[in-house]
Every structure is written in structure tokens, then in C-alpha cells.
């Protein structure tokens, strides 16, 4: 019967070792999951920050584009007015290169 006792003892010891190994693997898996969750959260935060920066950039580009369009419209209006005044001056005898003191 001693042989059976030793066999049962070995089996019990093996079962305890397997149970301990499973506990260690479970603990490692939980730690790995925690790390993965943390990395995912960090990645989401970084993505959110990059998106905010991209949105700011887009808004800045839109503002810049609106300012460029306004400046272009103002320039077109100034060119139109300059052309109108030059046309009036030419109709009254002004020639390019003539200064006011030459006309008087």
C-alpha cells in the first residue's frame, strides 16, 4: 500500500504544481491585459490630441483662406478703381510719365 500512497502523493503534488502554474499564467495574462488596456488608452489619448491639433490646423487654414479671398477681392476692387481713374485721366489728356507740374 505504500506504493499507492507515494503515487497519490506524487499525483497530489503534480496537481498542486499544475494549479500553481495555472494561477501564475492567469496572473500573467491579467497583467498583460492590463498593459494592453493601458497602451490602448494611451493610444486613444494621443489620437484624440492629434485630432484636436488637426482640427486647429484645419480651422487656421480656413481662416487663412478666407483672409486670402478677402485680400484678393480688395485687390481686384483697387485694380478696378485704379483702372477707372487712369482711364479718366487719359480722357483728360494725361500721358504716362507726365507729372502734375508738367501739366500746369
From TrEMBL:
Pfam families given in the database record:
DUF1068
Look up the domain of life of the source.
Answer: Eukaryota
Q: What is this protein called?
A: Uncharacterized protein
Amino acid at each position: 500500500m505504500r506504493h499507492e500512497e507515494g503515487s497519490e502523493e506524487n499525483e497530489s503534488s503534480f496537481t498542486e504544481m499544475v494549479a500553481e502554474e495555472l494561477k501564475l499564467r492567469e496572473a500573467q495574462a491579467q497583467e498583460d491585459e492590463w498593459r494592453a488596456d493601458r497602451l490602448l488608452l494611451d493610444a486613444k489619448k494621443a489620437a484624440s490630441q492629434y485630432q484636436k491639433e488637426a482640427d486647429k490646423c484645419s480651422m487656421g487654414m480656413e481662416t487663412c483662406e478666407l483672409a486670402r479671398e478677402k485680400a484678393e477681392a480688395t485687390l481686384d476692387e483697387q485694380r478696378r478703381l485704379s483702372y477707372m481713374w487712369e482711364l479718366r485721366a487719359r480722357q483728360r489728356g494725361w500721358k504716362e510719365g507726365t507729372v502734375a507740374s508738367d501739366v500746369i
